[in-house]
Amino acid sequence: MSYKYLSMLDNHLNIPVIISMYWTITSTYQAIMSTYGIITSFYRVIISTYRTTTSTYWTITSTYQAIMSRYGIIISFYRVIISTYRTTTSTYWTITSTYQAITSTYGIITSFYRVIITTYRTTTSKYLANTSKYRTITLT
């Protein structure tokens, strides 16, 4: 059978940006997926982002780490690295990153999910806002 549902995610990030050549954003996401009231998987994602202002183009590198477990047993572990760049052609800028991951156990695809992260910032404020949307599809 196939279950399709949205995962629970509490994502509210409002961090003052350090006014320097380098700034860092670190956030932690936790989510529990359930089907029919039974917890089937748990994962924790740690995102670390950094940026430099040494050129017209800058790079954001994010590191994702997640542990998937079922009934308290860790079944898989994976790490995803994303790189994104932007230009400085407007006052407002937007970063959109998309990644897809397939987790398998014993050669069988057990879960699939796609995450779309949109980040925006204005140059008139010292705060950076993050908006993340999680969509999870689990195949059983």
UniProtKB/TrEMBL annotation:
The chain crosses the membrane at residues 20-43. Keywords: Membrane, Transmembrane, Transmembrane helix. This is Nhs-like protein 2 isoform x1. It comes from Plakobranchus ocellatus.
